[in-house]
Write a structure and sequence with these properties.
Elements (H helix, E strand, L loop, with lengths): L7 H19 L5 H5 L13 H4 L7 H22 L1 H31 L10 H7 L4 H12 L6 H14 L4 E2 L8 E2 H18 L8 H18 L5 H6 L1
Antiparallel strand pairs: 1-2
Helix pairs in contact: 1-4, 4-5, 4-8, 5-7, 5-8, 5-10, 8-9, 8-10, 9-10
């Protein structure tokens, strides 16, 4: 264990995420999960700090564990390759990209129901129902958009997954429930396709922000295409 090296940005991101998670459950009177999650830009619950703070919030132990495990596993390699500054830029830009795609999808849904991207002052469930000829199901969709917050580092994590798959396509990964190692260039595209399918399907009861995951993956792909340098020694070592 003494030989484990965690580069500085990954280490600090791990610490901050864990501190935020602990504070959420220890300081329940502050309602941090409500204050620091991010809401639709037209929501009365939206605050200017939320596009950053939401990346450090998690809903439960499994959520933070798998995100932090992926951050350590893939982020450590990418930070050593890119350096601290470039890695930090990548992490936050993909996290913001995740949010913007989620907002774009929500804006489209709002427009389909109301004909505009904003609800004005019609923000209670009864007001929305009385102000539109939409079905109760669509009114509940609107209410969920306006009063349902999004939290988690998953968008940035998906950016890291895509970056790792592009830069180290032949790296073999052990995947839960698959008894043999699978190369990154095979498993990561499948994972992205599953997210796309689940996002389009809109399964009832599914509270995962699949489009946010796809937004992080898309921005991660674009950044790696811009930054990629196949001639560095670190790439050759893992390739």
């Amino acid at each position: 264990m003494n030989n484990i090296y965690i580069p500085p940005v990954v280490k600090n991101l791990l610490i901050i995420n864990i501190l935020f998670f602990a504070a959420t459950y220890l300081l329940t009177n502050l309602h941090l999960d409500d204050l620091l999650a991010v809401y639709y830009f037209d929501s009365p619950k939206f605050e200017i700090w939320q596009p950053i703070s939401y990346m450090f919030m998690h809903g439960n132990l499994a959520h933070i564990f798998f995100n932090m495990f992926a951050l350590y596993s893939f982020g450590s390699i990418l930070e050593q390759r890119w350096g601290a500054k470039k890695f930090l830029i990548f992490y936050f830009v993909t996290g913001l990209g995740a949010l913007f795609l989620q907002w774009a999808v929500q804006a489209y849904e709002v427009h389909q129901i109301l004909g505009t991207f904003t609800a004005g002052n019609k923000l209670s469930l009864s007001d929305l129902y009385n102000a539109t000829d939409a079905s109760p199901a669509k009114v509940k969709t609107l209410f969920g958009i306006y009063f349902g917050g999004m939290l988690g580092a998953s968008g940035a994590i998906f950016g890291l997954l895509v970056a790792f798959g592009m830069l180290y396509p032949n790296a073999e990964l052990m995947i839960m429930f698959i008894p043999v190692p699978v190369k990154a260039k095979y498993i990561i595209p499948v994972y992205i396709l599953i997210e796309l399918t689940l996002g389009v399907a809109e399964i009832a009861g599914d509270s995962v922000a699949h489009y946010a995951h796809l937004g992080g993956a898309l921005i991660g792909f674009i950044l790696v295409k811009i930054w990629k340098d196949k001639n560095d020694t670190f790439y050759t070592l893992y390739e």
